[in-house]
Design brief:
By secondary structure, the protein is α+β, with helices and mostly antiparallel strands. It is about 25% helix and about 35% strand. It is built from four helices and twelve strands; from the N terminus they run αβββββααβββββββα. It has helices spanning about 5-20, 70-75, 80-85, 205-235; strands at about 35-40, 40-45, 50, 55, 60-65, 90-100, 100-110, 120-130, 140-145, 160, 165-175, 190-200. Strands 1, 2, 5, 6, 7, 8, 9, 10, 11 and 12 form a ten-stranded mixed β-sheet that branches. It has a two-stranded antiparallel sheet with strand order 3-4. The longest helix has 27 residues, at about 205-235. It is globular and about 60 Å long. The chain starts with 6 loop residues before the first helix and ends in a 7-residue tail after the last helix. Bound molecules: the ligand CCCCCc1ccc(-c2ccc(S(=O)(=O)CCO)cc2)cc1/C=C\c1ccccn1. The site of the ligand CCCCCc1ccc(-c2ccc(S(=O)(=O)CCO)cc2)cc1/C=C\c1ccccn1 has 24 residues, from strand 7, strand 8, strand 11, strand 12 and helix 4.
Length: about 240
């Protein structure tokens, strides 16, 4: 895929998104406010507006037992599972499978009254990252979704307002080998998940509506998605 015209953008975006995702909420600048908490899941947001539009960056951290970073990224990246966990999705088109780890999507999301319906066109790239701390244990896995322009899907021509998004899912598998030296089972693993997203709604939507949507939808999405991965993997061999 390194020959594809998007490749330089993908390389640059993945590098910048992963380094930002690795920063704790305390480090990457002030202004992160905790807005939702549920067990191990903590969701933070920053209140930001661009041209009067709410684009509140979101950062969620979660630790889930019994699954690996590869399994989380695989179910997030692969189109065949998306309708199972993405409740706001109305329609998804795989525009181009650039390579086995890079796909171009067009998605329409269900209309959220009183705002107009939204669609998104983005490339999605999944990658294993060498662990820079050289800690032993499995590597990191990431999926980055980045809006891009596609001539065959011009923005704001039909019923939908085009959103512009940047999303990074960064996963680290934690293995706690059993004392008796036996094989590692799902009871001995967990996954540290960092989910970062910035969604520019594209066209006007009331700040109160957008903030209510994000406050309601993001916690629901992360809980539902991680529960889905657990259900899909629990009786299967572990994939690191
Ligand atoms: C007025 C409403 C405007 C927002 C509409 C909207 C736009 C984009 C998106 C969205 C959210 C997550 C992704 S992803 O993480 O890349 C996974 C692949 O689907 C891509 C798109 C959603 C939603 C609408 C609802 C909403 C908002 C947050 C969280 C969940 N749902």
């Amino acid at each position: 895929a390194s020959s594809h015209p998007l490749w330089p953008d993908i390389e640059r975006k993945v590098a910048s998104q992963v380094s930002m995702a690795k920063l704790g909420v305390g480090e990457c600048g002030a202004g992160w406010q905790l807005f939702a908490e549920d067990g191990e899941m903590k969701m933070y947001r920053r209140e930001e507006e661009v041209d009067g539009l709410v684009v509140d960056p979101l950062k969620a951290v979660h630790v889930v037992k019994g699954i690996t970073g590869f399994e989380v990224c695989h179910h997030f990246f692969s189109p065949q599972y998306r309708y199972d966990w993405e409740t706001t999705l109305e329609h998804m088109v795989v525009v181009e499978t650039i390579s086995e780890d890079t796909i171009l999507f067009q998605q329409t999301h269900k209309r959220i009254w009183p705002a107009s319906q939204r669609d998104a066109v983005f490339w999605s790239h999944m990658r294993r990252l060498p662990d820079d701390q050289d800690r032993e244990g499995p590597d990191l896995w990431t999926v980055v979704n980045q809006s891009t322009e596609l001539p065959q899907y011009p923005a704001n021509t039909g019923k939908c307002v085009r959103v512009y998004l940047t999303v990074c899912l960064l996963c680290q598998t934690l293995v706690n080998p059993p004392k008796n030296g036996g094989p590692v089972t799902r009871d001995d693993i967990s996954c540290k998940i960092t989910y970062c997203s910035v969604v520019n709604p594209g066209g006007w939507a009331p700040a109160s509506v957008l903030r209510a949507v994000y406050k309601r939808e993001y916690p629901k999405f992360l809980k539902r998605f991680t529960a889905y991965v657990m259900s899909k993997t629990k009786d299967k061999p572990i994939r690191f």
